[in-house]
């Protein structure tokens, strides 16, 4: 099973991060990532730029509306993510608890849907499977 670990922080967490030397943050994250790589569970992981550099596309109106960041409350923002592949929900929780985060930070852990979660006889699911195979073949070239 794949799980996404979504990194979030409240105001206290943001301040704690800003007070830490950047090299210390990078080293802690590097050690955590290395442990997941060595265990064979890390599929992807990225940090995100400040919300002020982002934007939101709101579909509430007839035409989608694009609004520049920052947006939302700090607790609503997410700062980065990891995607891991593990055997159980409990194993995902164990990896999440090892993240080098401090007070004011938290991880939202969500299972990533897989092709098997959808009806195999659906036309669009079949197309998606084909597209993924094509993309994998191009990447292997």
UniProtKB/TrEMBL annotation:
Source species of the chain: Microbacterium azadirachtae
Positions of transmembrane segments: none
Domain YCII-related as annotated: residue spans: 1-115
Superkingdom, natural source: Bacteria
Pfam families in alphabetical order: YCII
Record-given protein name: YCII-related domain protein
UniProt cross-references to PANTHER family, sorted A to Z: BLL7163 PROTEIN, BLL7171 PROTEIN-RELATED
UniProt similarity note: Belongs to the YciI family.
InterPro entries reported in the protein's UniProt record: Dimeric_a/b-barrel, YCII
Record Gene3D superfamilies: Dimeric alpha+beta barrel (3.30.70.1060)
């Amino acid at each position: 099973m794949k799980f996404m670990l979504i990194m979030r922080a409240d105001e206290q967490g943001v301040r704690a991060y800003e007070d830490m030397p950047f090299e210390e943050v990078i080293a802690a994250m590097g050690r955590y990532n290395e442990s997941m790589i060595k265990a064979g569970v890390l599929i992807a992981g990225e940090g995100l730029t400040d919300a002020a550099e982002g934007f939101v596309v709101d579909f509430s109106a007839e035409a989608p509306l694009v609004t520049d960041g920052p947006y939302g409350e700090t607790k609503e923002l997410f700062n980065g993510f990891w995607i891991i592949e593990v055997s159980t929900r409990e194993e995902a929780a164990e990896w999440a608890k090892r993240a080098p985060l401090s007070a004011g930070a938290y991880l939202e852990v969500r299972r990533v849907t897989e092709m098997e979660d959808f009806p195999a006889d659906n036309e669009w699911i079949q197309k998606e499977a084909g597209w993924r195979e094509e993309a994998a073949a191009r990447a292997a070239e």
